[in-house]
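anyone seen this seq b4? input:
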Amino acid sequence: MSLRPMGLPPVPEQTVRVARAAFPQGSLAIRVRDRLGEVFTDEPFAEAFGVRGAPGLSPGMLSLVTVLQFAENLTDRQAAAMAIRAIDWKYALGLELTDTGFDHSVLPRFRARLVGNGMERVVFDRLLEYCVDAGLVAAGGKQRTDSTHVVSAVRDLNRLELAGESVRAALEALSVAAPDWLARAVDVPEFAHRYGPRVDSWKLPGSKVKRDQLSQVYGQDALRLCRAVWSPDAPAWLREIGAVDIMRQVLVQTYTVRTSSRGKEVVSKREADEDGVPPGHLRLASPYDTDARWSAKGDDLFWLGYKVHLTESCDNTPPEAEAEAEAEAEVEVEAEVRGRPNLITDVTTTLSTVPDVKATAPIQQQLADRGLPPAEHYLDSGYPSAELIETARSRGTVMVTPVLLDRSAQAKSHAGYDKSAFRIDWKARRVRCPQGNTSTGWHPVRQRERDAIVVEFAKTDCQACPVRPECTSARRGNRMLTLYPEHLHTVLAAARAEQKTKTWKDKYALRAGVEGTINRATRGRTIRVNTPSGGSMLKV
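predicted toks r here
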């Protein structure tokens, strides 16, 4: 398929006349074409298409269809039908009233092509450029970020179902790619009987003994199929089939292979306490979406999928209106108050197991790459660290965010001696405790991939101290402190002191408005459902 850049065609005269008569007040599709038509051009997509072959549909037009499809919450079939029967859509796409449109299968293939070429953000970036040129958003000012969960559009499978379904998916792929080889490698009738229907389409055995037996059968079949694919006689390209590699990973993550005392090979399901299981950020949850991960937030939210982080400008919305929007989520607050509107400036999707603090630096870098670094960045307590606060400030961005307080037992009890009770002499590399004793050890270390300093007090001083119960309950008998390096310690201490003031709390109230933005993005939209065909592509 080739591309001959044309962009959106001019709107035919008859289509203009009928659309204006049918929609005297306009419609979303008409307004998008009139105001944002220049955003949907073909040139940015040129690298995803060849220069030979039959010309395909305009990617600019298909990207406009995708935007309207999301805005009206339509399936691919419904969107293709709208391009045929909806007058305002024909106006937006520049089609004649008699145009027969296109087949709905074009849309998923277009999205897959975008994802395969890393172009899923092209339209968003072009729209943002348009807003910058129009003076609707600019560098500096205030922006705020928060995250919400994205549910993968795949079935929830337990470990037994996942093991069986991964074998079924591999068999289906092999039956298409190498049917003759598969017929020689396995007993096709037996496997067809066991893996014909989806494993979650029938009820699993109620007995634990029978479930364990079924689990062993799935493991043995997966091992047998892997050995056949990786045998010297098998074509090497079979190992590159995605479903086959996924089956191999599920086999390794779910089963162990041992040799019994009688010399018999035994395939058994992994037990967390005895054999260990992969950590959550590595553990596969579906053979059809290998990026989806199980995650939890608090005691009430448990989902399979991703996280999406939304960042928006927030220069002109009063904090009082934001607080009201958060309290009454169904009421949309007017974002434009005699100035620029609040606009989404970045959308970042991560694995569901990635903590928010890992997304802070990428988000700020993406804003900088677009020429939109904020002067003030409002975030909740999950995003900051001392390093991030200092780095952002060196680049001209102040992170307005509550940093985590001292979580030591002494600080939590509000009765003991926390870190703030100790006097630190950075030059002398000593620390004096509230009772006047001086530390005897100062040890620079690496903890969790970051620099730290471990300070140790003498056991003789601590054991003889009259207030030792208020200072430490460690079995080793002496107090130890873990400190950041001096420059980071100072940043953290200043941030903790500032966030206790009323001035800071009043200022931070502006962050609450992003809750309303997330509510509007998720209510009646598909932002919380991710289609696995595009990996971690978010449908926005």
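The chain has 21 helices and 14 strands. The radius of gyration is 30 Å. kinda curious what u guys think
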